[in-house]
Amino acid sequence: MYPFPAASLDEFWSGLRHYLRLEGVDNVSDRLGQPQDLLQHWQEPDLLLSQTCGYPVSTVLHGKVQVVGAFHFDVPGCEQANYSSSLWVRQEDAAKPLQAFGGTVAACNERHSQSGYHALRSAVAPFAVNGRFFSQVVFSGAHRQSARLVAGGQADIAALDCVSAYFLSRQEPETFSRLAAIGFTALMPGLPLITSSATARATLAALRRALAASVEAPELENARGAMRISGFSILDQQDYRICALKAEQNRTDGLADW
To answer: PANTHER family from the xrefs (predicted)?
Structure first.
């Protein structure tokens, strides 16, 4: 889910795989998969470990997966296992408050995104008039593309997962040199690590122990540093109910769907 440095991700996965096997979890692939259809992938009955977003895990994936936990990230906008979205605008608009962007164009990655869609809706809801705030919302398909749309003038503001923004700003310095962050959205539970609803309770416990070991292992310190991983917390499905509840509250309060 995150644009990690590829070599560091491979190194961390190799270490995590080692700890999984020490816990007796043997059906672990040597390399991470890159599924094209994420929703289908997340619902695979033999899914051992993957990462999704807080909104789908509290809605369309509810009852179909089990939450294993979430990483902590050492980047601005994160606290322990919680994260937020940073609000990005063009440099010339950096002094404007959020409410000044009423009537402008927003870029969102997609409607099932907590960080790019629902977090932004919650942020602008207090300023909406007759259920509306933006004049238009364009859907980009990815945080990276949302940033490009704002930088290029096709949109005026975007909410980017703060962890994604940290890495994207380093991967696309030219794009982000034209952008400025004007704040953060409210903290929410971080991107959940998940396993199939069919995964045995003993295997779920083993996954959690292996993940906890991997964020403490000295031999993985360099990989964790490059990925900004600073810890791991055990979370469950209940921790993510707030995502669905907040989205529903925005609708109940009259904010029109985008």
So the answer is: PHOSPHONATES-BINDING PERIPLASMIC PROTEIN
